[in-house]
């Protein structure tokens, strides 16, 4: 919105890096893209996350608002109910919400109530030697057992070594709990993808075998060689019966 853009332009922390023109005449009238100064890819959290749950619904049902008569309410999935409500609450931003985590993390089934739970402060942890490639993120930590946030979009294909997780956290990042001082996240294939690849390979092998054996299979299915052999046998039998005269 124009008010959000004006607030960002009046703050020293966001730096405008790009703009997109309006394409459809609908709000928002184009986008401003900012880079937040001082934002780190990986760093420690001030407070322990809270594990919560949510159900899909409308913005009103997710955020405790009243339905507006005559206005079609947008449908939100469970994660959107958690993340959007958290993102719109400035008092909640210093303590993320997750949908899973270690047993020691507090649980609160209601996402709205989870945002107001008392904070549980975490020890300071230093994150160093952060390295990033197109499909991996690695870093070192000064302490194990203290959760850190990785500001990269969560997806089930992320796998971590040297830590527990990754746990999807608001707004759509990842939290890991280091079990060693060196942690590596890699974007890899899931078991479902490998299963699909194996099935595809077996299908291709089957097609190859059919193509390789097709001439033989075609001969098996061709009735003419059988018919010719049968006619020759019948002709020989007729000759013997008729004293060598041509079979009729």
Summarize this structure as a short list of keywords or feature phrases.
elongated; 248 residues; 30% helix; alpha+beta; 15 strands; 4-stranded antiparallel sheet; 6 helices
Description:
This protein has six helices and 15 strands. It is elongated, with a radius of gyration of 34 Å. The model has no long low-confidence stretch (mean pLDDT 84). It is 30% helix and 27% strand. A hairpin with a 3-residue loop joins strand 13 (163-169) and strand 14. The strands form five sheets. It has a four-stranded antiparallel sheet, with no helix packed on it. Strands 9-10-15-12 form a four-stranded antiparallel sheet, with no helix packed on it. It has a three-stranded parallel sheet with strand order 7-4-8. By secondary structure, it is of the alpha+beta class.
Blueprint of the fold:
Elements: H1 2-9, E1 14-20, E2 31-36, E3 42-44, E4 50-53, E5 57-58, H2 59-63, E6 75-76, H3 78-87, E7 97-98, E8 107-110, H4 111-114, E9 127-132, E10 136-141, E11 148-150, E12 158-161, E13 163-169, E14 173-178, E15 182-187, H5 191-220, H6 224-241
Parallel strand pairs: 4-7, 4-8
Antiparallel strand pairs: 1-2, 3-11, 5-6, 9-10, 10-15, 11-14, 12-15, 13-14
